[in-house]
Write a structure and sequence with these properties.
Number of strands: 11
Strand order of the largest sheet: 1-11-8-7-5-6
Helix content: 25-40%
CATH topology of the largest domain: Rossmann fold
Strand content: 15-25%
Order of helices and strands: EHEHEHEHHHEHEHEEEEHEH
Distance between the termini: 63 Å
Number of domains: 2
Largest sheet: 6 strands, parallel
Radius of gyration: 20 Å
CATH architecture of the largest domain: 3-Layer(aba) Sandwich
Bound molecules: guanine
Length: 298
């Protein structure tokens, strides 16, 4: 028998819609005063199917709030200099406020070199070392979208971060590291764990707020979670489940075993519909912010 869900759902779709509504109003105000529409350029290299879906979703989301999008696509074997030349052109373009390089890049490209070439004022992914440095110093700047989305979600549901024991599983530049800094900024006691951490389950069980960005399907089980904790699942995996007649159907799951964990946690994000929509909402928010900052500096 399936265990009953007890936890309240942290509804990323709902909160992302609310964020988008606010952005739409800001974009409308911009358009009523000025001539230029905020613009986001997305650089996509190669044909990774997941990246193609993410990029399509980002471009669709831009349309919904009135942001113009520019897709720059390259074949998987593009020389690095061509990518850098294209980014240099986007850096100079008046019509472009935000530049996002979809990750992962093919192995022959140096991700650091490519990300470093983005103008920090247009770095809507918040991955330029200058912006990551601002974050580490607790200063204003463009911040990575997924961790920012997690923070907005926690805030929306009034989850107390101040003084809470927060455990982050995962130490990527995209999620784990920046999120740990954001939780610290809001006065959580932060523990960062990763694949080599010992006693992972034991550490996770101490968390008031447990964020899982480990990239391992259904890794976190009920025994890993303190009763009453808030659990945020950043993972996304497509898995094939056997159909009734043997045909495989696919479903999307996270890093957390939702059925098990929802019976002990107080709050939990679903996958899909949790962190994913928030990431896109923060990308749009960063683009409008970058536009406003550029307009203010002219
Ligand atoms: N690939 C997976 N997530 C992300 C993200 O947030 N930004 C970029 N640029 N690439 C990604």
């Amino acid at each position: 028998m399936q265990e009953k869900t007890k936890a309240k759902i942290l509804d990323g779709k709902l909160v992302a819609n609310k964020v988008r509504d606010g952005l739409k109003v800001r974009v409308e105000a911009i358009l009523s005063q000025r001539l230029r529409t905020p613009g986001l350029a997305v650089v996509l290299v190669g044909d990774n199917p997941a990246s193609q879906i993410y990029v399509k979703n980002k471009i669709q989301a831009c349309k919904k709030v009135g942001i113009e999008s520019f897709l720059v696509q390259f074949p998987a074997d593009v020389p690095q200099d061509d990518v850098l030349a294209s980014i240099a052109k986007l850096n100079r373009s008046e019509a472009v406020d935000g530049i996002l390089v979809q990750l992962p890049l093919p192995k022959h490209l140096a991700t650091d070199v490519v990300l470093d070439s983005v103008d920090p004022d247009k770095d809507v992914d918040g991955l330029h070392p200058l912006n990551l440095g601002y974050l580490a110093a607790g200063r204003q700047g463009l911040r990575p979208c997924t961790p920012q989305g997690v923070m907005v979600l926690l805030e929306h549901y009034n989850i107390q971060v101040n003084g809470a024991a927060a455990v982050v599983i995962g130490r990527s530049n995209l999620v784990g590291k920046p999120l740990s800094l954001m939780l610290l900024e809001k006065h959580a006691t932060v523990t960062i764990c990763h694949s080599r951490s010992q006693n992972l389950e034991e550490i996770a069980r101490c968390a008031d707020i447990l964020v899982v960005a480990a990239g391992r399907e259904c890794m976190v089980k009920q025994s890993w979670v303190k009763p009453g904790a808030t659990v945020v699942d950043v993972g996304i995996h497509k898995r094939v489940v056997p159909g009734v007649f043997g045909a495989g159907e696919s479903e999307i799951v996270g890093d957390v075993d939702f059925q098990e964990v929802a019976s002990v946690a107080s709050f939990i994000t679903p996958v899909p519909g949790g962190v994913g929509p928030m990431t896109i909402a923060m990308l749009l928010s960063n683009t409008v912010y970058a536009y406003e900052q550029r307009a203010a500096s002219k």
